[in-house]
Design brief:
Chain lengths: ~240, ~290
């Protein structure tokens, strides 16, 4: 590992992607022992490279200093990963646990199929944010594009801005909270009453994301559960 | 897959570097399209003249073309650019069209268009892209899905003067649209879906639509997946289909507007650190035009 440690300032290890490959970076981070003392990492010059910091299982803090490409922080299981920039398709896809914090915008399919952890996006997320989410919490401070939470199964999607068309299309379960406008709801997604248990979940997520907006400014959406079983009257919606 | 690179310069000081910047963008996009590549460059117009970009067979003697036309040509590997006066245009076009060893790739006052089979860096080098200057350029790296890996099926496609289009995606109703366009007199050289999109836009522009109007009507008439980047003599447009599965990122500064399939391809542009980066929205027409 010493070969890739450029310098150390206090306890942060710097990894410069202009000199080393993403493969070398990921091999280094993926083999960190659970009890590593090297818990702070900064990745320099990401320059939009794909698959940066994927499959990390150690509870370390990783800062990516710039824009990242596709599948950044995918399969994260325990790390706190901060991206000082934008991310491409599929940030934090299949995350199991931990925190992924995007300081800029995210492209499509942010948090796709993720099972756990928290994904915070400071800017906007484009199409299919939270597609097939399976337990992850996603907080988007800006807007989300069309088909947010498409086929979502479990977890919570919080949108502080507006949501695009077909929000929650073909929703199984999962809670959706939107503060702004919703262009349209997808098949089997409906507005729900905000229950006390919803408020507790939303309050906790807003707190963790550093948002001070009132709970009352959000509207909750969820599954109407009408498409769970085949019914000929619903043929047009399948 | 497929990769798209588009660069529209606002600052004339960058014009001599257009080719270098485009070549770098295309090389980065090799992983999205390694089988063929091409680009259109909008260079300086010569008053009263029109440029033909012509692909020539390997055995063809270019000197015989010079003698036949009585005009100078500039050679770029297997492509040559022929500049003739507007009065001669129809006559030269007829000569080029009937010559079995020649294929007219594009025509226009400002646009030249080059494409070929091979890795993008090799294709750019073969044609000398880095030495080209201009106001805007559109390039493409192809991973074939809809038709064979041939020079003809590489992008960009041009079906009208100074008009070209590149495409990432696949169209599902291109056969139907092609039949309609053939009835309107649009000619097609391949069975490729993208050529139909280029022909569609040319048809609309010929009917008097502006580029942004033509792109808006494409949303209704073209079915399938697409990111289009189109060029005209003075303009540069972008359109994504309503589903928008294909990746796109744009950067705008005071000096340029750039489009790329991936941010990686924008990294080498000057001032990219301070550029406004955004993902073009689905089904929204973006269009930039140079002041006349």
């Amino acid at each position: 590992m010493s070969a890739v440690l450029q310098t150390s300032v206090e306890s942060t290890a710097f990894f410069n992607l202009s000199g080393f490959s993403v493969r070398e970076l990921n091999a280094t981070l993926q083999t960190l022992p659970a009890d590593t003392n090297q818990t702070a990492w900064t990745i320099l010059n990401p320059q939009g490279s794909h698959a940066i910091a994927v499959g990390i299982t150690a509870q370390v803090a990783i800062t990516i200093d710039g824009h990242a490409g596709y599948y950044c922080a995918g399969m994260n299981d325990g790390a706190v990963i901060t991206i000082n920039g934008n991310v491409g398709t599929g940030v934090a896809e299949n995350m199991m646990s931990g925190l992924v914090h995007v300081k800029g915008d995210a492209s499509q399919s942010a948090g796709a199929s993720a099972h756990g952890g928290l994904l915070i996006i400071e800017g906007n997320a484009s199409a299919r944010c939270g597609i097939s989410m399976k337990g992850v919490d996603i907080v988007v401070k800006g807007n989300v594009g069309h088909m947010g939470a498409f086929m979502a199964q479990s977890g919570n999607l919080v949108v502080c801005g507006d949501a695009g068309e077909a929000l929650g299309d073909s929703l199984y379960e999962a809670r959706i909270f939107v503060k702004g406008t919703v262009a349209s709801l997808g098949a089997d997604c409906e507005k729900k009453e905000m229950l006390e248990e919803d408020k507790l979940i939303l309050a906790e997520l807003l707190k963790r994301a550093g948002i001070t907006d009132s709970l009352e400014s959000f509207t909750r959406y969820g599954s109407a559960r009408a498409l769970y079983h085949f019914h000929v009257d619903n043929l047009g919606a399948y | 897959m497929c990769g798209i690179a588009g660069l529209f310069l606002k600052n004339p000081a960058l014009e001599p570097r257009l080719g270098v910047l485009m070549a770098n963008m295309l090389t980065v996009l090799t992983e999205r399209g390694p089988d063929s590549a091409g680009f259109a460059i909008y260079g300086e117009a010569i008053p009263g003249q029109v440029k033909f970009t012509v692909r020539v067979d390997a055995e063809f003697n270019v000197q015989s073309l010079v003698a036949g036309l009585g005009t100078a040509v500039s050679r770029h590997d297997d492509h040559v650019v022929v500049s003739v006066s507007i009065e001669q245009e129809a006559e030269v076009r007829a000569f080029l069209d009937k010559h079995p060893a020649l294929t007219v790739v594009s025509a226009g006052r400002r646009m030249t268009l080059f494409k070929g089979v091979g890795q993008p860096e090799e294709v750019s080098t073969r044609f000398g892209l880095s030495a080209m200057s201009g106001t805007h350029g559109i390039g493409h790296t192809r991973m074939a899905t809809e038709s064979a890996v041939t020079t003809e099926a590489a992008h960009p496609f041009s079906t009208g003067a100074d008009q070209c289009l590149v495409h990432n995606g696949s169209l599902s109703n291109h056969n139907d649209v092609r039949r309609g366009l053939i009835r309107e007199g649009i000619k097609f050289a391949t069975q490729n879906d993208t050529e139909v999109a280029a022909g569609y836009l040319s048809c609309k522009l010929r009917e008097g639509a502006r580029l942004d109007e033509a792109l808006t009507s494409a949303l209704d008439d073209l079915d399938g997946f697409y990111n289009f980047v189109v060029g005209t003599e003075s303009g540069f447009g972008v359109l994504r289909d309503p589903i928008s599965c294909k990746p796109a990122v744009m950067a705008e500064t005071e000096d340029y507007v750039a489009f790329a399939s991936e941010y990686r391809a924008l990294v080498g542009l000057p001032g990219i650190e301070v550029a406004r980066l955004f993902e073009p929205e689905p089904a929204k027409v973006y269009f930039w035009e140079r002041a006349a």
